[in-house]
Amino acid sequence: MSFDPVYTARSNILIVGTWPSPKSREQGFFYGHPQNRFWPMLAALMHAPIPETIEQKTRLICDNDLALWDTIESCTITGASDASIRDVVPTDLAWLCRQAPIERIVCNGATAYRLCVQYHHLPGVQVLRLPSTSPANAAWSMERLLEQWGPALTRREEECGEE
């Protein structure tokens, strides 16, 4: 089961993962594993409280002109192992980019990035590979994640047309 995208008509940065983990599917929303650092990291970067409910998580994404989805609509996978992914049916990121002014896609981890560039060709949209927030990526501390993710989730002034 994949999830519908979270976005508004103002969303300009799309965050993508690969495919929902078993814990996420159980909870019915993105990044549901309690040890995943995605929501605490995003809250810290947006100077907001850590969201606990799906409604709070959705609000955090939407209030900051972000969008959230996965690169895969369906696949065969063993547990939560990205390395086991096969039989990929990609999501329609081009459709989402027509619904919102997406300028940048931020990929949560190497596999999300690989799948994004393999299946999604979106001229004019910058695609960035960032370290995974997964608990399996223990080599990356929260501090290092914040340092890498922060610049990717903010628009530079010249991109905003500000002086």
From TrEMBL:
Coiled coil stretches, renumbered: none
Annotated keywords: Glycosidase, Hydrolase
Pfam families recorded: UDG
GO molecular-function terms, A-Z: DNA-deoxyinosine glycosylase activity
Major enzyme class: hydrolase
InterPro entries in alphabetical order: Hypoxan-DNA_Glyclase, Uracil-DNA_glycosylase-like, Uracil-DNA_glycosylase-like_sf
Name of the molecule in the record: DNA-deoxyinosine glycosylase
NCBIfam families: hypoxanDNAglyco
CDD domains: UDG-F6_HDG
EC number: 3.2.2.15
Upper taxonomic lineage: Bacteria, Bacillati, Bacillota, Clostridia, Eubacteriales
Chain ranges of the Uracil-DNA glycosylase-like domain: 4-147
